[in-house]
Amino acid sequence: MVFLQNSLEIWLLKLVSTCLILKRLILCHKISRNNILQIKNYLVSVGVDSLAIVLITACFIGMVFTLQIGKEFVSLNTTSMLGPVLSITYLRELCPVLTAVITTARIGSAFTAEIASMKVTDQIDIFLILKIDPVNYLVLPRIYACMLILPLLNFGSFVTSIFSSLFIASILYNISPSIFIYSIFSSISYHDIFYSSLKALVFGFIISVISCSWGLSTQGGAKNVGISTTSSVVTSLLLIFIIDFLFSYLMFYQFPSLFKV
């Protein structure tokens, strides 16, 4: 019980630290030329380096979903509905969440470990001595990079999932590719694309803010670097799932008229 109480206190302190960092970002928001160069570098590390694992994961998830769901649609003689069901599932829920989970595991953990290592070795104090705001220098470029690249990764994940589903549907269930593609375009709308991109944008903000703030609030030695990294990943994943539910509730239950075609 004492361990759980201490862990909860540390988690709450990190959450307060996150709120303070957000306040500083809002009040002292400033983009310099150096920030732009950093954003470009992080776009490569977040986007290009994560592209392969995102696409591979989306490919196999798409094949698994088609394999499982397609069998039921064939038995009900409703194969024409397979494309719309899969495309809406991928676009609205699966691809944004899956992309965010992969980014959290790969990029969020790296951000926390890197900044936490700088914090425990007193490298952050050097920025203060040089009159450089560590939040603007370390956190802001990562936030922009994640928010810019996650919608693109989400779209790539969606396209890959659709093509993998098309392959399995045509090979195993003899569904015509033209019928499959036509049913997809007739079911999704611009509202769905906007909703999916908005979720990915918000997820990118959550991942970057949590991972960076958890790193900046790390104290102690190397052991606490690992603890902060694990805690940031778990917290980011929990917030992603909670925000995903809230988005779905607000957009498709509380305000469904916003997404009528």
Automatic annotation (TrEMBL):
Any GO MF annotation of the entry: phospholipid transporter activity
Gene name for this UniProt entry: MlaE
Residues annotated as transmembrane: 12-31, 43-70, 134-156, 162-185, 197-216, 236-255
Gene Ontology CC: ATP-binding cassette (ABC) transporter complex
UniProt record similarity statement: Belongs to the MlaE permease family.
NCBIfam families given in the database record: MlaE family lipid ABC transporter permease subunit
Protein name: ABC transporter permease
Pfam families in UniProt: MlaE (PF02405)
Family annotation (PANTHER family): ABC TRANSPORTER PERMEASE PROTEIN-RELATED (PTHR30188), PROTEIN TRIGALACTOSYLDIACYLGLYCEROL 1, CHLOROPLASTIC (PTHR30188:SF4)
InterPro entries for this protein: ABC_MlaE_roteobac, Permease_MalE
